[in-house]
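User: Teach me something about this protein's shape.
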Amino acid sequence: MNQQKSRTAMGAAITKNMVTEELEKLQKDWENKNLPDLTKKIQEDLDLLKNTTLEIAVTGASGAGKSSLVNALRGMTDFEDGAAETGVTETTTERKSYPHPTFPNLIMWDLPGIGTPNFKAKEYVTKVNFKKYDCFIIVASDRFRDDDVLLAREIRKMNKKFYYVRTKVDISINSEGKKPNFSEEKCLEKIRKYHCDNLTQVGESNPRVFLISRDDLAMYDFPLLQASLEDELDDLKREVLILSMPAFSKEVLKKKKATMEDYIRKVAFLSCAIGAVPVPGLSVVCDLAILVGAMIHICKVFGLDEDSLNRLAKRIGKPVDVLKSAIKKSPLASQITSQFVIDMLTKSVVCGILIMVELVLDFVPVLGSITGGALSFGTTFYILKNFLHDAEKDAENVRTKAVKS
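Assistant: First, the predicted structure itself:
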């Protein structure tokens, strides 16, 4: 199998320089802290992230495409189990929460349309409990109205962030594209100016409008919208957003990788501190449960699990086997077990691990006083860094296969 063959080459991506950089970070963390205190701090950081939620409310006029946007941000189509209900008439008559199917810490709220008989503008803020949400996306499909600006003002009073989003831009582009001398860039700028001028006329100062298509998040302004969300969230909520966002571009994959590199460093340190034991039949030490859990987490972050691949296949209208054929180096999340990790250690990375462990012992002598500590740190760090490298490459292969016509 391709996955098994690739393991023989595993390790080429990780150099001593990379490990040295990580150890320098570890040494800085270590300064003025004893092992129990640092271990406790790292465990608390991981637990805090696990329990941190990001709640994004999608609001605006009825029929603007709020429910479709909620589904797109969760990597889902409009027609599968668990999707927010969509339709040509008003379908959202009460506020509903929709957790991300893989990362339930991200909760999208589909709010009823403002200005409908059931939700008069003056009562809207109280009825939908605006204080609950971290940030807001105000959606329009044709133009923004007085009620939208009223919402923005109420959100400002709570010192929270909001974003004006114009949906269904692809439909407008396709319609305008039939005209002679069509320029997509000029058309987008025309649409953006129209909405900004419209918002200014109804009392909004210096508005910014993001143009998006729910069918392809890589198009138009969605990358800018995501970047704005990231910039204005605190560290933990930003991480929740990055982990859960669909991998629609190389830039998103790089952000996911950077987030996972910090996670790996913390996990590797925990493995050195908990008293890991030798792997049966091998001269390496690690905690197999930590490795299994971390690998499964990495796979899910990059969409390399059965559920994520099936959802992506439905969204793009391709057989899931076509997407799986792009995965050359990584296992699927469901294939990762303790025995899988032991087999991987046995077949491919033992020599590389021992070289890295020697470097660890030389660089951070205090780890050598912990039974198995240096071996465990070196083993866990080395394996997971290589695994992350492979997962990122395979996720990019899947993304390329998905967008290929």
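Now, about its shape. The chain has 16 helices and eight strands. Residues 1-12 have pLDDT under 50 and may be disordered. If you'd like, I can walk through any region in more detail.
User: That's plenty for now, thanks!
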